[in-house]
Design a protein that fits this description.
There is one protein chain. This protein is of the alpha/beta class and about 300 residues long. It has one domain (about 10-230, about 280-300): Rossmann fold (3-Layer(aba) Sandwich). The chain has twelve helices and ten strands. The chain has helices at about 20-30, 45-50, 80-90, 95-100, 105-115, 115-130, 150-165, 170-185, 200-215, 235-240, 250-275, 290-300; strands spanning about 10, 35-40, 65-70, 75, 135, 135-140, 140-145, 190-195, 220-230, 280-285. The strands form two sheets. An eight-stranded mixed sheet has the order 3-4-2-7-1-8-9-10, with helices on both faces. A two-stranded antiparallel sheet has the order 5-6. It starts with 7 loop residues before the first strand and ends with a helix.
């Protein structure tokens, strides 16, 4: 399977590696292939709504209502309290009863104290939209979840299994079981890892992949190495630069720094490809603003 085959993609990585940018570029690319794409985010990213809008200048941040951002792409922000209320309304089927339950301060305190419930509210809503129907057809062909960063992502991925193992039989357990079965199925879902070719993000990505596939037993469907710079210097060039003297702020020093960065990048990419045995894509470093043109370059690399 490849990253454009799944119905549900959980996109995560160390904070600052560009997972939101990857989500936006992937959404654009899949929509251009004729798919109906829903982008979900639990980080309140204004960037997603603005990047994917047809007119980025007037693009609005995502909110808790599903809305179309551009042809073929919809977006929604996953707000825990709003997700819980929506889930309650779906199951109680009465707005009056739902408002009575969620307007009660004792119920609010109870919900706040239940471990993992807020994470399940967000993940559960994203999962629901991957199964949602309009008549007899799926409302969306694929759901892209711009998930939390590494540690919080792992906690969120564990929640459905924890519910299945610890909650008595009932609606909540049934839904969690269905969500967990989908997450475990590599034909339907996968975790897409996003990283940078730098030492700390590489270390964290290797550990994250081991935790997801080893401890949780979930499929990783791909690896995106973001912000890859073109190689300017060979190993011989780098060695020659080391032996030259020059101003610490001059062109020679800048060349040495670039050569060192390329060496680190090469070692990190080699390690990632050797240890994270998944479909890998390298995205170019883009110094300009992430407008529609920049996202077009990235989507081409993602879906080539």
């Amino acid at each position: 399977m490849t990253i454009d085959d799944q119905r549900f993609l959980f996109i995560t990585g160390k904070g600052g590696v560009g997972k939101t940018t990857v989500t936006a570029a992937l959404a654009m690319g899949l929509a251009e292939r004729g798919k109906r794409v829903l982008v979900t985010s639990c980080d309140g990213q204004a960037q997603l709504g603005q990047s994917l809008a047809m007119d980025p200048e007037s693009g609005k941040p995502l909110d808790d209502t599903v809305r179309e951002l551009r042809p073929g792409v919809w977006g929604v922000r996953l707000v825990p309290d709003a997700c819980l209320r929506e889930y309650g309304l779906m199951k109680l089927k009465s707005r009056v009863l739902n408002d009575a339950v969620f307007g009660n301060r004792y119920a609010k305190n109870f919900f706040a104290a239940v471990p993992g419930l807020r994470q399940w509210a967000m993940l559960g809503k994203a999962w629901f939209h991957s199964t949602e129907k309009t008549g007899k057809i799926n409302r969306f062909d694929v759901v892209l979840f711009d998930a939390p960063a590494t540690g919080h992502a792992l906690e969120m991925l564990q929640v459905p299994k924890v519910i299945v193992d610890s909650v008595p039989a009932g609606i909540l357990r049934t839904d969690a079981q269905a969500a967990w079965e989908m997450l475990c199925d590599p034909v339907q879902a996968g975790v897409l890892l996003v990283t940078l070719p730098e030492e700390m993000p590489t270390n964290e990505t290797v550990e994250l992949q081991r935790a997801i596939t080893g401890e949780l037993g979930l499929p990783c469907c791909g690896l995106v190495i973001n912000q890859v710079i073109p190689k300017l210097f060979s190993s011989a060039d780098a060695s020659a630069l080391t032996g030259l003297s020059g101003d610490s702020l001059g062109p020679l020093e800048l060349a040495r720094r670039r050569a060192r960065r390329e060496q680190v990048q090469g070692m990190c990419i080699d390690r990632l490809l050797a240890t994270v045995d998944r479909d890998a894509r390298e995205l170019p470093f883009i110094s300009s603003a992430l407008d529609t043109g920049a996202l077009s370059r990235l989507k081409a690399a993602l879906l080539s």
